[in-house]
Specification:
The chain is an all-alpha fold and 479 residues long. It folds into 2 domains: 416 residues, Growth Hormone, Chain: A; 56 residues. Helix content is 78%, strand content 2%. It is built from 22 helices and 2 strands. The protein has a two-stranded antiparallel ribbon with strand order 1-2. Helix 14 packs antiparallel against helix 18 and helix 19 runs antiparallel to helix 20. The N and C termini lie close together (11 Å).
């Protein structure tokens, strides 16, 4: 039966999982402070150095789906240990790198560790009682944003104080603690469903996702109308369509597309793209605006470290609002909670649109947006898990995490395109205009409100979510 883990052990496990989620998301942002220096540090071209960021995104997109499925097949604790170990290895390889090839290998391994998060979310539902599971899931979901918000100023400080390799050694130390916790403090439950991994489906999904996301992430650098961009996106979409047709014929597919295409799950995943877009847009635009020289007339003249510190409270706000999300889910249901989160996120962008003259104004706007993310991110997994079989919970949450990742990737591409489309000369350099930043904030608000509208169309599943205890018990009893 569900929640047989003693309450004290269950709380400790949740803390370990949240620490792991925060560590994983933190390691994804480690290179941001040194991104401009990577061509020199790795003795490569700026175009090649860009793959240090892109490859982590690609590996993470595939891993979130694959790890979720492996957690359902083999047991979630085993997969959590494996993804933690990958993060340790990837961090050490990156720390020892002085050239592009080993750095790309290390960053790819770090990206694969993102599979820890959806598997951890699915496990939390099994080990916590109904009265606390919503809050625990919300806290785990919030670590996606918290780690990134904390990681930027922390890695900037480490990079400025020590050798740049130290940021990866820091990631290795944190991931080693995470792995130890996963081995010793996360219980191994008899939660594996058995079966076989769809290897052909795994390859097809990997090729389709990688091709599509490369086109989206490199569109601004290659040109949106270039043959490489359009060809990559088109090839990826074709492969994904073929992959989908193949998966529908499989008895044990990598992803149960019939369940994924059900109205509640489909609409929640579409909302995840929009809300993920909204979350990432703030993370891209605000640091740039904070660091522009004051001589531009609208820049705020902050250093990289100072900009990170102005953004860091947003991560703390996300975590603070995770319990609020849990209480709202329990009181009014995950659908309404996600709608509230999307609304608050949109209001954060509107605040930034009108208040962007000082750092403290942007701090208020980013905190409002972070509150919306903290509320909304906790509701999405609950909506998903309330509409799929417990045997498929890991894979379903992995798909939802992938949709959020697609939203953040799209946001990065769109924001960069908007900022480079409207520029003016400043001391011989082309910088975005003030109107370009305001347009980015407006686009972020629209994305959040689109997520709100999509969520409003999701059928009400609060009763289903409350009944998942019985569902899990029946499934485990029959296993």
């Amino acid at each position: 039966m569900r929640a047989t883990t003693p309450p004290s052990r269950g709380l400790l496990t949740v803390l370990v999982l949240c620490f792991g989620g925060m560590t994983v998301s933190l390691t994804q942002t480690l290179v941001v402070p040194i991104q401009g220096q990577l061509p020199t540090l790795l003795d490569t071209s700026p175009s090649n150095a860009g793959w240090v960021v892109t490859i982590t995104l690609l590996a993470g997109a595939v891993s979130m789906v694959l790890s979720g499925r492996l957690g359902d097949l083999l047991g979630k604790q085993r997969v959590l240990v494996a993804t933690s170990a990958l993060l340790v290895v990837g961090s050490v390889v990156s720390a020892l790198s002085d050239s592009l090839a080993p750095m790309l290998a290390g960053r790819a391994l770090q990206g694969m560790a993102l599979g820890f998060i959806p598997v951890g979310i699915a496990l939390i539902r099994e080990i916590t009682p109904p009265r606390t599971s919503h809050t625990a899931i919300a806290a785990m979901s919030a670590t996606l944003g918290v780690g990134g918000a904390i990681g930027l100023p922390l890695s900037a400080f480490v990079a400025q104080t020590f050798d740049w390799h130290a940021i990866f050694w820091m990631g290795a130390a944190l991931s080693a603690v995470m792995t130890l916790g996963a081995v010793t403090l996360v219980p191994h439950r008899n939660d594996h469903a058995g079966g076989s991994l769809d290897l052909v489906g795994t390859v097809g999904l990997t090729i389709g996702l990688v091709a599509t996301l490369i086109g989206v992430s490199k569109g601004n650098a290659w040109g949106w109308a270039s043959g490489r961009t359009l060809g990559s996106i088109a090839a990826g979409i074709v492969v994904l369509l073929v992959w989908g047709a193949y998966e529908l014929r499989r008895r044990e597919p990598l992803v149960n597309l019939r369940a994924t295409s059900s109205r509640p799950v489909l609409l929640t995943n579409l909302a995840a793209i929009a809300i993920g877009f909204g979350m990432m847009a703030m993370s891209i635009v605000m640091p740039q605006l904070l660091q522009l020289p004051t001589a531009t007339g609208f820049g705020l003249g902050q250093t990289l470290l100072a900009a990170g510190l102005w953004m860091a409270p947003g991560g703390l706000v996300m975590m603070a609002f995770a319990p609020v999300s849990g209480r709202l889910i329990q009181a009014i249901g995950p659908k309404q909670t996600l709608m509230i989160g999307a609304l608050v996120l949109g209001l954060g962008y509107l605040t930034a649109f009108f208040l962007m003259a000082t750092p403290w104004q942007l701090l208020i706007a980013s905190s409002i947006a972070a509150a919306g993310v903290g509320i909304g991110y906790g509701a999405m997994p609950t909506l998903i898990m309330g509409n799929v079989s417990p045997r498929e919970a890991g894979a379903a949450v992995g798909i939802n995490a992938l949709m959020r990742s697609i939203g953040t990737t799209s946001a990065a591409a769109v924001m960069v395109t908007v900022l480079t489309a409207s520029t003016r000369d400043f001391n011989g350099l082309l910088i975005p205009t003030e109107g370009a930043y305001q347009l980015c904030f407006a686009i972020g608000a629209v994305a959040a409100f689109v997520g709100l509208a999509l969520t409003a169309l999701v059928p009400h599943v609060h009763a289903r979510a409350r009944a998942d205890v019985a569902d899990v018990g029946l499934v485990e009893a029959s296993a």
